[in-house]
Structures are given as structure tokens and as C-alpha cells.
């Protein structure tokens, strides 16, 4: 697991192409341009700007030169909130090995120690039991259900929300 780099544009585009069907039920509808290197180069540049501004931590999971997943700490808010959102996915070929759980546990520690956050929030589709188990194993607790929370796979869908308090 490491910070995304500009050189990751092609491997990241390849990972999304390879996992297109695997990720489709869990992500927004993607147009054809999304799967191009140019699109990912633009996104990486924007993510690194957000990182430089202290508002995000965009990470990739890599196996050699191949990208096999992502973990992102998004929407970091400072002040009295000290909170952020967590998102992640793992390549279909690497699923079921504990990679997502290990990555989320590691990011919890980064959020606590390096980012000095108080809280992380994550949401899953209500029927995404595998992702819910990842969060539970990483110490997250359910805080509720948000109706029609995000437009995923072309439909506004309910999400189960989780949080992890990082400092008592």
C-alpha cells in the first residue's frame, strides 16, 4: 500500500478495465472515458492536489507493477470535526484473502497517527455484506442507514453507515 503516483495512470486504468464487471454493482455508472489512461492521469493529478492540501490520502494496493486495489481517505475536515470518509476496493482476483481488511486496518492507524483524525466514516450498500465484514473486522461500528445515499449502478441506493472513533 502506497500513495498513488502519476505513473500509476495506466496500471490503474488497466485495473479498472480488468475489474469492470466486478466493481459495476458497487460504484457509480462509468462512461467509456473512465477506463482510459488519460482519465486516470487527470484523476491522479486532482487526488495529489487534494493530498497536498491535506484534504485526502489517495492510496493504491500494488502487487509489483500491477494495481490490485485502492484505499482512499476522502473529505478530511479539520477543526472541531477531525473526520474523514473511507473508501476501498480490491481486485476480484485478490478477493477473499484478507487484503481489504489488512488495508483498512493499516489506514485506520495512518488516520490516527499520521493524520491525527478523531473519526473515520465508511458506507456500504445495505446488501454488500462482504464489505460490511471488512469494516467490522477493522473495528468499525454501524451508526445507521442513509436512505438513497449515493447513486450507485445508476440508482439512488440506501447505504449502511459505519464509523470508527480513533481517539477516546
Overview of this structure, please?
One of its GO terms (cellular component) is cytoplasm. This is GNAT family N-acetyltransferase. InterPro entries: Acyl_CoA_acyltransferase, GNAT_dom, N-acetyltransferase. Residues 14-161 form the N-acetyltransferase domain. It comes from Agromyces tardus. The chain contains five helices and seven strands. It is α+β, with helices and mostly antiparallel strands and 168 residues long. It has one domain (2-165): Aminopeptidase. A seven-stranded mixed beta sheet has the order 1-2-3-4-5-7-6, with helices on both faces. A hairpin with a 2-residue loop joins β2 (57-63) and β3 (66-77). The longest helix has 16 residues, at 37-52. It is globular, with a radius of gyration of 15 Å. The two termini are 27 Å apart.
- Widest sheet: strand ordering: 1-2-3-4-5-7-6
Q: What's the order of the H and E elements?
A: EHHHEEEHEHEE
- Helix amount: 25-40%
What would you give as the CATH superfamily? Gcn5-related N-acetyltransferase (GNAT)
Q: Terminal Cα separation, in Å?
A: 27 Å
CATH hierarchy, class = Alpha Beta
Mean pLDDT: 97
Supply Rg.
Answer: 15 Å
Secondary-structure-derived class: alpha+beta
**Count of separate DSSP helical elements:** 5
CATH topology, by name, is Aminopeptidase
Protein name: GNAT family N-acetyltransferase
Pfam family, one: Acetyltransf_3
Family: Belongs to the acetyltransferase family. RimJ subfamily.
GO molecular function, one term: protein-N-terminal-alanine acetyltransferase activity
Amino acid at each position: 500500500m502506497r500513495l498513488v503516483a502519476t505513473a500509476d495512470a495506466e496500471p490503474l486504468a488497466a485495473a479498472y478495465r480488468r475489474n469492470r464487471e466486478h466493481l459495476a454493482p458497487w460504484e457509480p455508472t462509468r462512461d467509456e472515458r473512465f477506463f482510459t489512461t488519460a482519465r486516470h492521469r487527470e484523476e491522479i493529478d486532482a487526488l495529489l492536489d487534494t493530498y497536498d492540501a491535506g484534504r485526502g490520502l489517495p492510496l493504491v494496493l500494488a502487487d509489483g507493477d500491477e494495481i490490485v486495489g485502492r484505499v482512499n481517505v476522502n473529505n478530511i475536515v479539520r477543526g472541531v470535526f477531525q473526520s474523514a470518509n473511507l473508501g476501498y476496493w480490491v481486485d476480484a482476483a485478490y478477493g477473499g484473502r484478507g487484503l481489504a481488511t489488512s488495508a483498512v486496518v493499516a489506514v485506520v492507524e495512518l488516520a490516527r497517527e499520521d493524520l491525527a483524525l478523531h473519526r473515520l466514516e465508511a458506507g456500504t450498500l445495505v446488501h454488500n455484506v462482504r464489505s460490511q465484514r471488512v469494516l467490522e473486522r477493522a473495528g468499525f461500528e454501524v451508526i445507521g442507514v442513509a436512505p438513497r445515499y449515493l447513486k450507485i449502478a445508476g440508482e439512488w441506493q440506501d447505504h449502511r453507515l459505519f464509523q470508527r472513533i480513533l481517539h477516546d
